[in-house]
Amino acid sequence: MKGVFYSVMTLMLLLPIVSYLVLYSDVIKSQNEELAQRITGEKLASFSKSIDIDLKKALNIYARRSIGNAVAHIETNGTPIDNSNVRLKELFTNNTIYGSSAALNSSIYEWRDKIISRGSQLGFDTTINFSNVYFAPYDSFNVILNVSVEVNITAGDTTVYRNYNESVIVSIEDYEDPLYTLNTNGLVKNIIKKSSFSVTNVTHLDNLTSRKLYISSSDGASFFDRLEGSLIASSTYKAMSSNTIGLESIVYQPDLLAFGITPKTGQSYVDYLYFDSDANTGYPVNNSAISWLRIDNTHAGLYGVQLNT
């Protein structure tokens, strides 16, 4: 009897200790789970924030690559593209133009795959979908990319959803002007550089000409038109923006001569008029330091110069 009594007493003494150990174990387990959830939540929030920051940068980078690939296609093939919006969208989504791979990866899906891979390393299941991709002229020196982006990030029972409607303005400066490429058999390369001044006198005109700069133009071809080989701003592209979208430069005669191209000495040297097959008569500019420069009457008025007619 004594043995049974002592066994029962020992069990009664151990029971609170065992209960405490079980309870303590449950508390520790719960705390560890909460800590793990908090760490996962912090990682999820940080990863989601990184997408917020990276997305606009990525859209700009891949839009610029798409433009660069379109210009390179024209230089390589010596022919204009048929539809600037369609081909830029194709380059941006597929990294192809007319179904053929472009030289520099311009597909936004390259960025998407990198993000998905990064999420996977953190234990997240990530999906990113793009829709409503649309390129259009914004103004004379910029194009705009509009795109909708859906992002889903799943970690266990937690899902973060993001829906972005982005508009990214991309500069066309530093790209080769397709009009020069197409109209000189690829010999003369003119890089688009925006003039920091308006042309209001002969000094400005001489600077514009000698420095091969560009200014906005109400009639000159927009960048989208230039990709298509058009000389003037089309009504289709004008309708896409409330801003002036055309641009113009002065064809630099020494560049033509350097490649053995006979200049049209009687033509206005305003680029979209100079490259026109029709006659656009140009006259010497009074007080200009550039002896070969010829400008038409309309642009003389716009530039604030007098002509020797």
Strand order of the largest sheet: 3-4-5
Task: Count the beta strands.
Answer: 9
- For the termini, the CA-CA separation is 135 Å
- Find the structural class using helix and strand composition: alpha+beta
Share of β-strand residues: 15-25%
Task: Please give the largest β-sheet.
Answer: 3 strands, antiparallel
The helicity comes to 40-55%
Unreliable spans are 20-36
Q: SSE order in H/E notation?
A: HHEEHEEEHHEHHEHHEEH
Mean pLDDT across every amino acid position: 89
What is the 3D shape?
Answer: elongated
- Rg (C-alpha, Å): 33 Å
Total number of distinct structural domains: 2
- DSSP summary: helix tally: 10
Short description:
The protein has 309 residues and is of the alpha+beta class. 46% of the residues lie in helices and 18% in strands. The strands form 4 sheets. Strands 3-4-5 form a 3-stranded antiparallel sheet. Strands 1-2 form a two-stranded antiparallel ribbon. A two-stranded antiparallel sheet has the order 6-7.
Could you walk me through the main structural features you see in this protein, from its secondary elements to its overall organization?
With 309 residues, the protein is an alpha+beta fold. The chain has two domains: 2-171; 178-303, no CATH class. The protein is built from ten helices and nine strands. The strands form four sheets. It has a three-stranded antiparallel sheet with strand order 3-4-5. A two-stranded antiparallel sheet has the order 1-2. The longest helix is centred in the first third of the chain and has 76 residues, at 2-77. It starts with a helix and ends in a 6-residue tail after the last helix. 32% of the residues are buried. The model is unreliable at 20-36 (pLDDT under 50).
